[in-house]
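Homework help board

Subject: predicted structure for assignment chain

Our instructor gave us this sequence and asked us to write out the predicted structure in token form, then describe one feature. I got the tokens but I'm not sure how to describe them. Can anyone check?
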Amino acid sequence: MGVSEPTMKQLLDAACDDPAFLAALQDSVAASAPPQAIDDLPSITGIADETTARLITFMRRINGFPRFNAQYGAVGDDYWLLPPSLLVSMHDIASRASSHSHLWHAAQRLAHQGLPDQRLFEDIRAAALRDKLILPTEALRAIIVHGEAPRTSGERLVANTLCFIRETAEGTNSLRRGDYEGVLQRITEGTAFAWTPQSPSQQPLPPTILAGLQRWGTHPLFGLLMHSEVMWYHRPFPACNGLMEVACRHAACHRIGMPALSLVPLSSLHSTYHVPNYAVPAGDFGVDRTEELLELIDLITESLIEAERALLAAEEEMALRKQRISLDYRLNHRQVALAHRMIDDPTLVIDVGSYRQQFDVALTTARDDLKRLVELDYCRTAYQGKRQIFWPNGLTDKPVLR
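My token output:
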């Protein structure tokens, strides 16, 4: 019987008492280019080189650290350490946030159930408040959740940010790494704050801050946190600093294959730990920000766990509702099937013609089926011109059949 491959935790446990290995691992992860051969990798007794290579590949994928050189010091002002506990935490977040995780599959299945939109609403509302946009909560909800058209420049900023985020999720935007001017132009389009990169009279990006943002670019997870901290405190985009941070973070989350990170609202992305005013001495790996980073990790992990719980509760509620519908003796199989669809998609709108076509029944049968669903409070109805439309009972606003 073959020996099972060591897990990442076992690898980290083995590396815990080997400072030389951790130093070599740090160097491999932070290098400007990945190792070219197995011989270039650090090694540790009892751990296969292939396992180490996979660890380094994983670390580089979710890593945005600058290179630290013992001779010249850290590149940039700050530097995160890589203790084993941090590596384990990073693995936990990546396993929850990747496009292959249960969390993201559940979010995709429940895309119409409100949680992703609610998280996005929380995110954008926090960003709008930070940008000092005076927008009533209900106006924001109308734009984000119900898709209403914006009426003011502030509402247009929110609507543009929302469109950019959704284009990112669908893979249709062409944002390049560090293309902050392009995002700014997209978000401010059609507003009183509109800015074009070709305009020499407008300089919203101080060169030093822009250089810092581009250095971190849209690196995954921790580089992302670091540049969001820069945007939080230095406000390089005066009209829409918060909205820019949200838009860039969502784009990065999808680009690196960890879209579930977009379920973490802005309010959960910033730590309560503050670096002391005095200078922090540099250690073997650079300036130690481990305590702050571990707190940031805890905030992200807690938010992902909360999202998982909410999605699980929504799935259970949907299953119970479907079970009750299936046991309702007053419904035929067609009505049960449509009621189940309306649970899966609360935005569903149907008319007699589409119902007739879907179930291949006579016009009178289709009309009677839908009328019965209205009588039993499973759906609502109204006339759209000469056409009678039907939609789920839980949808309060009258929809439009497209």
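Reply (TA_rk): Your tokens look well-formed. For the description, you could write something like this. Residues 290-326 form the longest helix (37 residues). That's the kind of observation they're looking for.
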